[in-house]
Amino acid sequence: MLIDSNPDQFSATVSHTTRKPRQGEKEGVAYHFVSPAVFSEMIATDRFIEHTLFSGNYYGTSKDTASRQKLQRSTALLDIDVEGVKTIVESGSLDTRCVFIKPPSLKTLEDRLRGRETETEESIQKRLAQAKDELQYAETSGVYDIVITNDDLGKAYEELEAFAFGSHR
C-alpha cells in the first residue's frame, strides 16, 4: 500500500529464494526463484546484503537490487526476517529504519497461515515457533524503530505511513 500510494518515493526489493513458487507467483515479481546451488554461489561471491535460512529455504536481498533502487533515488523497502535485520543493522553499511509488523496474537498468525492453505502442518509449527522468538526479539532488542500490530489493516497502514514520513510520535 505504501508503495502503491507513493511509487516515486518507495519501491520493494525482490528477494531471491530457493523455495518453490506458490500458485500465481511470477519470477521476478514475488521473488527470484533460484536453485540451492545458485544461491550458494551468490553467498560465496558476496552478492547479498543479507540472507537467511527460514523454514528450510534460503531467502536473501541482493546487492544488485539495492544498487538499482539507489540509482533510481527510491527508498527500498525490504520484507525480511529478524535475522536479515540483524545482519543489516550489525553491518552498519546501510542507513536503515526498521519496522516490525506483528500479528495481534500467535493464534491469529496460526489462523492466517492455515487460511492460506499453502503450508504443511510441519511448516506451520516451524513458523509459529520462529514467530514466538521473533516477537520476543522485536519487543525487547531495541533494534526496531517501531513495532506495528496488524490487527486492523487501515490502522496499521496509517501507523506505517506516519512513520515513513516522519510524523510518528
From TrEMBL:
The highest taxon in the source lineage is Eukaryota
Q: Which family does it belong to?
A: Belongs to the guanylate kinase family.
Q: Which GO terms describe its cellular component?
A: cytosol
Select a single GO molecular function from the record's annotations and give it. GMP kinase activity
Q: What is its EC number?
A: 2.7.4.8
- Give start and end of each Guanylate kinase-like domain: 1-165
Q: What is this protein called?
A: guanylate kinase
In terms of Pfam families, this protein maps to: Guanylate_kin
Checking SMART domains in the record gives: GuKc (SM00072)
Keyword Nucleotide-binding among UniProt keywords: yes
Q: Which InterPro entries match?
A: GK/Ca_channel_bsu, Guanylate_kin-like_dom, Guanylate_kinase, Guanylate_kinase_CS, P-loop_NTPase
Q: Where is the composition biased (Polar residues)?
A: 1-16
Does the record's keyword annotation contain Zinc? Answer: no
Keywords noted in UniProt: ATP-binding, Kinase, Nucleotide-binding, Transferase
Record organism: Fusarium clavum
Note down the stretches annotated as region Disordered: 1-25
